[in-house]
Amino acid sequence: MPTATTAARTTVHHPTPAAPTSTTSTSAPASGAGTVPPAPEAPALPATPLTSGSVSPPGIDGYLPNPGIGYQGWTHAHGDLAQSTEYRRGEHPEQGGFDWATLNPAVDVFDWSPIDDFLQQCEARGEQGSFRIMTMTGAPYGTHRVPAWVVDDGAVITDSPDREPDYRSRTYQEHWGAFVDALARRYDGDPRIAFIDISGYGRFNEWQATATTDHGDVAGEADSIDSATRRHLVHMFVGGSGTARTLSDDGRTESALDYDHAGFQRTQLLMPYGGIWASTRYVAAHHPDVGFRNDALFSPHADLATLQQIGYGVTDIWRRAPVVFETVDGADPSRQAAAAETLRGMGASLLHDNTVLDEATLAELVPPLGYRYALDRVTTGPGPTGSLSVSTEWTNTGSAPSYPRMGQDLAVGIALADRRGRVVASWVQEAQVATWLPGESRVVAVDVPLPALPAGEYTVLIGMVERTTESRIELPVAGGRPDNWYPIGPISLS
Prior knowledge:
The chain is an alpha/beta fold. It has nine helices and 24 strands.
């Protein structure tokens, strides 16, 4: 494993092949964020640091249900593991998901209460919400979810057995685009939302091919009505303007539709992959901040070798945006090894359990998902006048980094606790934790200014702070407190 040192107190280890070749220095002053502000002129530190000066905290294995990673049950009540990020979509009544017809019952009339209630419930449980809004489901769950008033206005519905919309329809695109515009105005940047799927095409809106899909389209940029339709549907969510080639209400005559969508500029989006390589390639090439979703884990459609053939950097999306997989209905246990290889190779952060997998399977697949920041070593000692020198060594032992756009804007936290366990001072170090890729080790060295505290013995605490909520995530370290501060050892101030 090659090692590169970019600064005297910063070491970055690169695994092969997951980590990038670039390195960054992580050494900066800490910002005061404590319950006790620093004194204007803190005294020099007549301190006895940790007895050895350096401690390697004991690590632990197992699943850590941290924000934005790990397990998503079929519903909140259907699942064997704790979850931090609940997922809803609209094809099954028991899932309580969302569909266009329910949320937009009339022209310019929007009923946001199902989404609002869901997000309020997630917030009350200390979770985030994520969802897909359906315009089409499929057998055995019925038919399309296009509002009746949109159909009455001329949206083309095919005569397929499950009555799938013709997504090329001008009326469909015009009204669905107006709905997504309203959705973005209401929810873009809502911190309760981890991600939203880009929807509006294919059965279950998984971007599965239809009878009119342009299979000659290589990269989503062909000059066909179908290719233009798929680009427009993407632009509704990511933002963009242009002219879409569409079909008039007769389903035969071509017409042009000018559009201009603001899209979601702050909320994380995921692009579902349902077999259309062209659309996956288009989004990967033109919208690198959009994540990847595959709803067919345990099937050949989610094999790593298959996904690698898509190219266009699809297997590296995890470096900049989250990757999510869902288990396919009727998951074949004999494909568990292939599923685990896919999750590792794609850098997955979340697994949506659509089949209620057994505990043994979950125990293998879920714990490695997403970021996992192991605290390897902590060194403390007297710093410059009136300060405490703290050096922490970390390794991301997970499968992906953290993603601030999902709400996981993390930083290293340092605190002191008195003999009663009360936190009397705390600081946040300005390291860019989101840049710590799997397998990389980082040293974060800071000098924190000490406030005026009574003489006595204190305990040094280390944590990983989520800036948006000021809470702390769980670390794979033994002996953590309920508030996710991790005691390192004593220090005496006099």
